[in-house]
Amino acid sequence: MIAPGGLDAVLELLAREPGAWTPIAGGTELMVAFAAGRLAAPKLVSLWNIPALRFIETGAGSAAIGAASTFLDLRAHAVLAAKLPLLVKAASWIGSIANQSRATLGGNLVNGSPAADSSPALLVYDAEVELISVRGRRRIPYAEFHTGYKRNALATDELLYAVHLPCRFTRHKQYIRKVGARRAMAVAKAALAATALLRDGVVGEIRLAAASVAPVPTRLYQAEAALAGRPITRQTVQAAREALLAEVRPIDDIRSTAEYRRRVTANLLEEFLLELRREGSRP
User: Fold this and answer.
1) Residue 234 exposed, middle or buried by CB count within 10 Å (0-12, 13-18, 19+)
2) What's the topology of domain 7-166?
3) What is the pLDDT of residues 193-215, one digit of tens each?
4) Is-contact 100 91, C-beta < 8 A?
5) 3-class DSSP assignment, residue 245
6) For residue range 21-43, what is the model confidence (pLDDT) as tens digits?
7) Fold topology of 173-280
8) Could you tell me where the DSSP H helices lie in the chain?
9) Sign of the CA dihedral 260, 103, 71, 21?
C-alpha cells in the first residue's frame, strides 16, 4: 500500500496506471476481499486522512458529503440528522462504533453490495454522485451509479469524490427499516426506505427503495406508480404489494431465502403505507 497524502497525487497515480490500483479508505470491507485474494487490482492506494475527501457541507437546500466521510461523521452531524434523517439512521446500522469510525460513505457505495445500508436512503433522497479524475468532474444520479452486481459507473482513473443530496424532504413522511438476524451488526436480509407526501388523502409524491432484493440497491418504480395519485385504501395497498413483488428479484443465500425477502419487503411497504395513512388523517 502507498499513501500519497493528497487528492491530486492519488488522481495522477490512477491516471498514470489506470486499473492497476485499488483505492482504499477505511478498509472495513476491502481488507476482507484483499485477504481472500478477490481484488482485481491488489495494489492499494490510501485515501485515509485526505481532507479534500472528508467533508460535510450543508446549505439551505442541499448537502454535499465527501466520499471519505465516515458513518460516525454522519451520525454526529446535527444538520444531516434534521434534514436527512434516513441517511443518519442507516449510518447507525453499519457494524459497530469501531466500524463506523473507519467505514466511509464512498466505500460503502463503491463496494456495491446489494445489501448496502446507506443505499436505500440515498435513492429515495434523489442523491447524485460526483466522480473526479485528472480529466475533470462529472455528476450522475446515484440511481445510475450501480451498473450490475459489484459493478459501477467509475472509469478506471476515477474516484468517487462526493455525494450530493437535496434537502427538501422535511415535510415528507419518512421511513426506513432493516430486517436482519440481529438488531445490530447484521447484514440486511431486507430493507426499505420511503418518503411520501399525502395531500387530501391522496399520495402526491412517493419514493421507495430497497436493499437485498436485486443485484443492486433498487428504486421500486412499479410500486411507486401503483400508489401515486391514489388514496391509501386496502385495494391500493394490495396493488402496491403486487407491483413490488413483480419487480424485485432477490436470491436464496446463506442469510435468507428469496421468498422470505420478497414477503418481508412487501410487509415493510404495507407498514409504511398504514403509518402514512394514519398520520395523514390527523388534524
Assistant:
1) exposed
2) 3.30.465
3) 999 999 989 998 999 999 999 99
4) yes
5) helix
6) 999 998 877 777 777 777 777 88
7) Enolase-like; domain 1 (3.30.390)
8) 7-16, 30-35, 71-75, 78-83, 85-91, 97-100, 105-111, 119-124, 221-227, 234-247, 258-280
9) negative
